[in-house]
Amino acid sequence: MFDYKLLQALSAVARQGSFDQAASELGLTQSAVSQRVKLLEQRLGQPLLVRAHPIRPTQAGLALMRHQQQVEMMESALASSLSQDEDSHYQRIRLAVNADSLATWLPSVLAGLHRKHRVLSELTVEDEVVTLERLRRGEVAGCISAHAQAVQGCRSTLLGNLDYILVCSPEFASTHFNEGVDAQSLRLAPTLKYSSNDDLLAQFLQTFYPTDNSLPPHHLIPSAQGFVDAVLNHMGYAALPRLQIQFALNNGELQQLGTHSLAVPLYWHSWRLQSPVMELVGKSLLAQSRISLSR
């Protein structure tokens, strides 16, 4: 039988990448967290963490993290069902989501879950192509990903498509696209990337304006709202969700470059063994996606 205080310490260290941050999360000393992890490793007779920078779990550590995540969900569901004062109990969910969903259609889902079901959301924001790794590592109970293939022990459900278009400010267009929008002008003009993992623009250009694999000069701005603000302030053009910038298009602050639209599919991934609250999360996501996302 596992000591779940030890598992909790292991998961916190692996999720945070350091003993100090894990100690802060758990309200313990760094020494106490370290002792709990060492004790768990001694009982199992194998290392559970790779002491690198950042710290990461071994394969055995990953398996234990996934187990601990599922136990935590089940305990939360049980506590909710046994609570005599339902209004005083909150349930926490850990999710990995992409920034563009968080900037557009996802907040209404989270707000509804909090308002109607007293759900507290703990989000990790990543590019939609890497969120699935958080679920695979056992750091979260569910994720929104661009990948359809479910990882072992999980299920995958199509939510819909988030449609992206190329946009820039009229001032930027008059400077960089005065002679039209084509493959050459798009590869010479400055643009934006969310992170080093963000290949959305490369995918857009290769799909609709193929030449070579070279990327335009770009800013690196890891913020969904910062992306929009940078485009509004004439720093570059970008591929943005139509859902996010429709108002700016309507009032003339932004203009579309070309006529193409890239549909990026989004999938909801979660463990097959689910707590009632995670079943509720999945149903809420599907309901809102039918309203907000394209098919």
Structural summary, described in words:
By secondary structure, the protein is α/β, with parallel strands linked by helices. Among the domains are: 1-88, Arc Repressor Mutant, subunit A (Orthogonal Bundle); 162-264, 3-Layer(aba) Sandwich (D-Maltodextrin-Binding Protein, domain 2), CATH 3.40.190. It is 47% helix and 21% strand. The protein contains 13 helices and 11 strands. The strands form 3 sheets. Strands 3, 4, 5, 6, 9, 10 and 11 form a 7-stranded mixed β-sheet that branches. A two-stranded antiparallel ribbon has the order 1-2. A two-stranded parallel sheet has the order 7-8. A hairpin with a 5-residue loop joins β1 (49-50) and β2 (56-57). The longest helix is centred in the N-terminal third of the chain and has 24 residues, at 59-82. The chain is elongated, with a radius of gyration of 22 Å.
Q: What's a concise summary of this model?
A:
Residues 2-58 form the HTH lysR-type domain. The protein is α/β, with parallel strands linked by helices and 295 residues long.
Strand content bin: 15-25%
CATH architecture call of one domain: 3-Layer(aba) Sandwich
* Number of helical elements: 13
The topology string of helices and strands comes to: HHHEEHEHHEHEEHHEHEHEHEEH
Poorly predicted runs are none
- Cα Rg: 22 Å
CATH T-level fold name of one domain: D-Maltodextrin-Binding Protein, domain 2
Instruction: Report the count of strand segments.
Output: 11
Family: Belongs to the LysR transcriptional regulatory family.
Keywords: DNA-binding, Transcription, Transcription regulation
Pfam families: HTH_1, LysR_substrate
Protein name: LysR family transcriptional regulator ArgP
